[in-house]
Amino acid sequence: MVLAPGGVQQRTLPDRGSLVVGRSDECDVTVDDASVSRRHARIDIIGERITVEDLGSANGTRLRQRKSAVETAEVTEVRLERGVATELALDEPLVLGSVTVLVRAEAAEPAPTSPHADGVVVAAPETKRVFDLAERIAKGPLNVLLTGETGVGKEVVAAFIHRRSPRAGGPLVEVNCAALTESLAESELFGHVKGAFTGAATTREGFFEAADGGTLFLDEIGELAPPLQAKLLRVIETKKVLRVGATSPIEVDVRVIAATHRDLVSEVKRGAFRQDLYFRLNGMTVVVPPLRERKGDVRELARLFAARTARLMGLDAPALDPAALARLESHGWPGNVRELRNVIDRAVTLAGGDAIGEDHLFFDDGALGPSATAPSVAEGGALRTDLAAEEKRRILAALASCDNNQTRAAELLAMPRRTLVARLQEYGLTKPRRKPEG
Known about the structure:
Strand order of the largest sheet: 2-1-11-10-7-8
Number of helices: 13
Structural class: alpha/beta
C-alpha cells in the first residue's frame, strides 16, 4: 500500500523475489511523486522474510518504528544506510521521501466454488488420484519429484503437499531453476558472505536457509547446470549449506519438492543429469497428467479463472454459455492449464462484463489441437484485432477516468505501469500529460 500526497494505491506483491520502488517507469512499483528518486529502494521477499535496501536515493529511506505500548507511544524514524539490507516487518511504515509504504499481509481469498475444499479444482477422476496420492505423501518426510508437461499445474500440487504436511507452519519457498543464471545460481540457492564476489556488498541468506523448517520447491530442476547439481546433492545429503565465500556450513531442515517437464531417466542416461541426485529427489514421484487427459477439470477451472480475472477488472464473475463450455472442453490444450488461463483472460476482456460466448474464445495460432470448430488463421487474426481494439478502448477509458494519471490507470486495469506504457507505445498513442491541478 503506497500512501502519497496524490492518493493511495495498492499493489499485490509476489511471494518471493526483488522489487525496485521508484519514480521511473522501469521500476517494478512506480510511485509518481517528486520526493521519490527514480530508483529509490529495493524490497526483497524470501519466504516470510522481507528486507528493504536504499539504492542511493536523494531524500533517503526511513523506517518509522513505534516502541511497545508498555513503554511509550513514541514513534521514531531510522534512516537506512545505502546498500544495507534491513529487516522490514509487516505494517511497519517505510518512508520514501514524503511517501509512506506499508507491506501488509493480504487477506486470505475465500476458497472458490469447486469440488475440493482446499480451493484446488479436482473434478476429473485423474486429478483426484493425483491429489489423493499427494495427501498421503504430504504426511511423510520423503522428498518428492513432480513430473508432467509444462503448464499442467505442478506448482499447485507442490503447494498442496506443503499445506497438508507437518511443515505447513514453516515457509514454502519456490525457485524457478530455469531462471537462475549460472553465475549467480550458487549464491541464490546457498547464500553468500559480504565480499565473496564483486557486488556482494552484504551477507545474504539463500533459498535453502529461507526455507528452513519448511519446504523448498525447485521448479524445472532439469534445467540446473551439472556443476550446481553436485552442490545441490551435497546439501540434500548433509542438510548443511555453505554460503559462497564462507568456511563454516549452516545446518538446514528443509524438505525438497522438485518438478520437471523433462524425462529425467533419459537425461540421466545421456549424462545430462546426475543419477545420484535423481535418486535423492525421487523419494516419491507424482505424475501430473496433461489437461487433455482430465477434461473434467476444464469447466471448473474456466469458471475459477473467469471469476478471478473479472474481480481484477472490477467486474462481476461472468457466466460461460453452453457453446463456450463445449468449445473449451473440445480443445486439445497443448499449453495445458496455463493456456486455458490465457484464453479465459482474453475472453473476460472481450466480453466486457457480459456472459462469455464462443465468439469470445481466442486461441493462439499454432497452438490449436485438432478440432472441427477450430477458427481459421484469418478468423484468428480478426479476433486478435478485436482484442487489441478492446484493450486500447479500455486503456483510454481508464486514463480519462484518472485524469491521465498512468499509475492510477494501471491500477484500474490490473496491469503493471510499465506494461501500460508499453501498450501506449505499441498502439501509437502519445504519452498523455496530466492536467495541472487547480
